[in-house]
Amino acid sequence: MTIKNVPREALQESLKKLQLDYLDLYLMHWPVPAIDHYVDAWKGMIALQKEGLVKSIGVCNFQIHHLQRLIDETGVTPVINQIELHPLMQQRQLHAWNATHKIQTESWSPLAQGGEGVFDQKVIRETGG
Predict the structure, then answer these.
(1) Which of 29, 51, 65, 106 could form a Cys-Cys staple with 82, CB 3.0–4.6 A?
(2) Is the distance from CB of 39 to CB of 69 less than 8 angstroms?
(3) What total of structural domains would you count in the chain?
(4) By residue range, what is the domain housing residue 73?
(5) How far apart are CA 80 and CA 113, in angstroms?
(6) Cβ distance 80 to 49 under 8 Å?
(7) In sequence order, what are the beta bridge partners of 90?
(8) Region for residue 31 given its phi and psi (left: phi exceeds 0; alpha: psi -120 to 50; beta: otherwise)
(9) In which band, very low, low, confident or very high, does the pLDDT at 4 lie, cut at 50, 70 and 90?
């Protein structure tokens, strides 16, 4: 099995479980830079989009250099980059870069994960009442 086939196999399993013919959005969760197969996986996702099995493709947790490499090597820009984004981690440079490249930023946030979370911040407590 090649890396390009991994997205196809995962998608086929998801479509079967969901009893659907296609997905509106298919995301790559993380680039896993230590393994460095994300461009090949992205190429597999592009093929799925061309076949009509997914309408849009995007990524999660990609930094600027990961995104630039995808664009440079495939010519296909993700429609979404889902990133951790909250008052304690604003990632303004990445958010701005996404915007200039017409990539929607979608945020996810562990609001109260371990240690001092977002809700423990004085400004948040004061704002929230």
Answers:
(1) 106
(2) yes
(3) 1
(4) 5-128
(5) 24
(6) no
(7) none
(8) alpha
(9) confident
Beta bridge partners of 97: none
| Cα torsion 14, 17, 21, 22: sign | negative
Q: Which residue bears the tokens 């996404």?
A: 98
**SS3 of the chain:** CCCCHHHHHHHHHHHHHHCCCCEEEEEECCCCCCCCCHHHHHHHHHHHHHCCCEEEEEEECCCHHHHHHHHHHHCCCCCEEEEECECCECCHHHHHHHHHCCCEEEEECCCCCCCCCHHHCHHHHHHHC
Structure tokens at 7: 């997205």
Q: Which two tokens stand for residue 2?
A: 């090649």
The residue assigned the tokens 């998801």 is 14
Which has the closest alpha carbon to 78: 88, 64, 91?
64
Predicted local distance difference test score (pLDDT) of residue 117: 65
CATH number, domain with residue 71: 3.20.20.100
Q: Which of 65, 62, 68 is nearest to 80 (CA)?
A: 62
